[in-house]
Each structure stands twice: as structure tokens, then as C-alpha cells.
């Protein structure tokens, strides 16, 4: 709203109003404002939750021996993150931008799904929360909204780099805005993959139609996978919020590169007109997460719950898709990926009853704080043994050490993601 006021003031040459035309200025303001809102609102929100006894009650000593001390800590802290994102965006974002609309829709849709899950767990005292099929249904709907918007909205375009002078190999930016099924991949000279190339066998009349269908379905899969990965990563104080802030900052840099024709040209990446609004949104996202860490770092004063974890995962997924960087997510979100794989591995071995398995517990971060004796307490009739772990192996790590090491790994993955643009 303030953006439109300053836009009008700039049109009548009001001194200083033009500063709002700079995306870097608006992004900095969004980050600071989100951080302030999350700290100020968070303090009030935590007191209100404690007063109304909206606290964690589902910790089970048998299956989660290290978390029993966290009973009584307020949950639903994702509300703080959502509020700290949306308030700056409503004030200084371009609300008519299709990118802003999609990111706000992502925040609200997954926020509502996560809130419903937390509400059922907290107020209805049903520890399973919302049915998985309902969660998945919401994620599928969001993925379809994003994917179909990419396909049919005239506001979602890109400008790709082409070689106009083959003799001198001079690369310039193509001037026309086009709908494209191109995406970015690492380690190749052009950095581009056109999904349509995967369907050349279908002929020129069908290859692009099939490419768009594939891209929409891929969008649905990515939204569900990353939001669930973030949800699994939310198991220790500061874990998901810290990792997501690092990932969000990386996407912010990629959004700035993609929204600036000069930097996109320099790094030989696709230029995406209008994507500067993703820079502003992601700045608010990072600021909100940093502010939330004020309360969520060890020992946590509040948990984000599914209200926060599903939302931040969805934001990461949709932002990457809108930037055509979705194929970089397995690297950038490597921690989320291994959380999912380790959890699936544990469930598979428990279900099949096999005697050998790699992880003592899933998801991955719980493996490092679970001793052999704790596993035996949780599964007293189990004959499972672990590769590389004897019965006397009871070494566990404090969750602060695990959390910080996961942050370090995410920083390394983020740096390597950025380096791939210069490794060809």
C-alpha cells in the first residue's frame, strides 16, 4: 500500500519518493520490517498462547525420550512467521504482480492447512492431526494453481539468451518476452534445459503440450516434497527456521540475478521480467525466519508447528519454480531431501521387520541423538541391529550441536549451488 503512495508521489516529482523504485531498498525495508514484526508480535503471541494454555502436549517418552522436557512450550508459532511475511508485503510490495499474488496464496493456503493440523492436535487432542490425504490434497491444489498460472498467465514470461552473431559468438538478450518450458540446470554451458526437448518423439504439435503437462505435474510433486521435507526437518529448536533462512537467502540472490537484465546477462541466465517482486517477498521471508529464531533457538520458547513448517517449505518450492530453478532444489535443499529419505528408510525397515538398518531413528536429525539403549526402550521386542553401531554404542549429540552442524551443511550446499553457475 505504501508502495502505491510513493509511486504516486514519485509521479509528481516529490523529493525522495523515487527511492521506492529501487528493489534493493524495498527488499532491505521488507527484511527489517519482517524481523521487527516477528520479534514484537512474537513476544505478544507467546504470552497469549501461554495464557490460553495452547502448548505442546503430544510428546511421548517412549518414542521421543529427548523431547519430554518440551511439554508445555507454546506451539502454532508459524502464525508469527506468516504475519511477519505478509505485513511487509502488504505495505511495500506490488500487490498486482502475479509473483506477489502466487507467493501470498502459497503462504495462506499452506498456512491454513498447517493451522488446521495444529488446531486438531492442540485443541482436539488428536496427536495424528489432519489426515495425510487432506494435507496432500491441499499441496496438490497449490501445485496445480502455480503450474497452471505458469502455463496460462500472460504476465509470467521470460527472456532467454540467444546467440545472434554466430561468427563472433556474441551473446545478447532476446528482446521478446516468451512463454517457455525452459529451466536452469547446473554444470552445463548454457545452464538451460527445455522440457519440450524430452518430448521430441511426440512431434512438433505435441511436444510443447506434453512439456507443459509435465511441468505442471512436476510443480505439484515439488511443492509436496519440499513442504513435507521442511515439516520433517522441524524437529529441533531452530533447525527448520535456520536452514530455511539460509535457503531463502540463496533464492533471494537468484531472484535478484534473474530480475536484473545485466546480472542475468553476465551469468548467462534467463532473465525473468517482474521477478524483482520475489526479491522483496524472499527478503521478508528471511527477515521473518531470523526474527522467529529470536524465540525458537535453544531452548525454544515456541514451536512453529505445521503452521510454519509446511508454509516455509511451500514458499521455498514455489519461489524456486517461479525462478525456473526447481532442478537445483535437490542440492540446495539437500538437508530436507535426506530427512525424507531417512524417514522413509526407517518406516520401510520397521514395516518389513528386517533385522538390519542404517538409521536408529528417522528423520535424520533424530538418528544423531538416539542411543542404542533409547532405541531398545522405544522398540523393546526389536531384533534390529545397525550398520556400524554395536549394542554398546550409546554416543548421542546435544540438539544444539546437531542443529548448528545442519546449518553449516546447508550453508555449504547453498554456496555450492551458487558456484554451479560458474562451473560449466
Write the layout of secondary structure elements.
Blueprint: H1 2-11, H2 23-51, H3 78-92, H4 98-122, H5 132-152, E1 161-165, E2 170-173, E3 182-184, E4 192-194, H6 207-233, H7 239-259, H8 261-266, H9 276-296, H10 305-322, H11 329-332, H12 334-352, E5 356-357, H13 364-367, H14 372-378, E6 385-386, H15 399-419
Parallel strand pairs: 5-6
Antiparallel strand pairs: 1-2, 3-4
Walk me through the structure.
This protein has helices at 2-11, 23-51, 78-92, 98-122, 132-152, 207-233, 239-259, 261-266, 276-296, 305-322, 329-332, 334-352, 364-367, 372-378, 399-419; strands spanning 161-165, 170-173, 182-184, 192-194, 356-357, 385-386. The protein folds into two domains: 2-158 and 197-332 and 400-419, no CATH class; 343-393, no CATH class. Mean pLDDT is 84; it is low at 171-175. The chain has a two-stranded antiparallel sheet. Strands 3-4 form a two-stranded antiparallel sheet. The two termini are 43 Å apart. A hairpin with a 7-residue loop joins strand 3 and strand 4 (192-194). By secondary structure, the protein is mainly alpha-helical. It is 58% helix and 4% strand.
Question: What form results from the Cα inertia axes?
Answer: globular
How large is the count of helical segments? Answer: 15
> Spans of 5+ residues with little confidence (pLDDT < 50)?
171-175
* Helix/strand order, N-terminal first: HHHHHEEEEHHHHHHHEHHEH
How much of the sequence lies in strands comes to under 5%
Structural class of the secondary structure composition? Answer: mainly alpha
Q: Between the first and last Cα atoms, what is the distance in angstroms? A: 43 Å
Q: How would you sum up the major sheet?
A: 2 strands, antiparallel
Q: Overall mean pLDDT score?
A: 84
* Percent in helix: 55-70%
How many beta-strand elements? 6
Strand order of the largest sheet: 1-2
Radius of gyration: 23 Å
Indicate how many domains the architecture comprises.
Answer: 2
